[in-house]
Design a protein that fits this description.
The chain is mostly helical. Helix content is 62%, strand content 2%. Strands 1-2 form a two-stranded antiparallel ribbon. Helix 4 crosses helix 5, helix 4 (114-146) runs antiparallel to helix 9 (220-244) and helix 5 (150-157) packs antiparallel against helix 8. The longest helix is centred in the middle third of the chain and has 33 residues, at 114-146.
Length: 248
Amino acid sequence: MISIQRLNGVSACHMCGRCAGYRNAVVLKARSCNEEIVEYGAQKNNIWEIRLLLYGMIGVAIGAFTWTINPWFVHFKLILAKWLIEHDIFWPLSNTAPWWILTNYPANNDSLNWIDGFCIIVYILGAGLLFGVFLSVVLSLIATLMRQKLVLKQHLAQALLPIAAMGLFLGLTMTTVKLLQYDMGILWQLNDIRVFFVFVASLWSFYLGIRILSYYQPSVYQWVGNLLLWSLALMPIIVSWLLIFNVL
């Protein structure tokens, strides 16, 4: 059973609306979408949700959407392939993986070998670990500077939800947009629209971070340090998406 009286968010609710007007005890009304994060985010202490956000929705997502365009990925794969050839290990270079594990359509010149699959997994998990650890360290520094420790860290991490959600949206629509381009030709100003979405989501996350930090009443010196660290946390995410869309 859900305690409607203590419900501050919709994560445990199906939003059916049937509770509205029940015994004149519940009234549904509009509210800011930031309220649940800024005012009630400190009450959420599920560390696994925060790890999913930092390592999964941000880190793994960026890795999954950048491996096809990152020259470091190609360089890493060539180094590994060269080492295998020098040691007379050739089976990872063959296209013997079934289609339900790796893409294998030789007739369409679209095949991945075992070394491709290994490098993709390493790259995606590595990106998830790199971004997750970096963001976790920056958030821990902010919490230490504010002398709030884990409470502020988990609260402030929720301010990254807008830019994480926008990244997933833009990444998952890349294939759809590519198919539309094949059918309809060039979609004008596409990158400008994508950059606009990234810009809006970044400002939204930055604004939420400021609201959350002000909730803990920092001093002037804490304000300066926290804003610099919060900007540092957002910058790699923004740069990664701009690189994906060939803006930088």
